[in-house]
Model the fold of this input.
Amino acid sequence: MTINRHCPTCRSRQDFRKLNDDEKAWVRAEGSRSYVDNLWRCTAVGCLTYFRIGRINDRGLLPEKFKKEPPADAERP
Ligand SMILES: [Zn+2]
Done:
């Protein structure tokens, strides 16, 4: 299930999905939140933005390791 919202990082509308277990574990470990079941992340390639549902200003960035792999023919850094 995804929701369509404006992503402030992509500066366009994107699909967001709920954080998976690894991502939730990271947010918990990072320490600023204890309740993570209402967090959604942008599914755009290379975007790490997550936010609390209903509170687009309550957001953060996931670490690089959660970056979605770009297509195989994309340029790599
Ligand atoms: Zn985004």
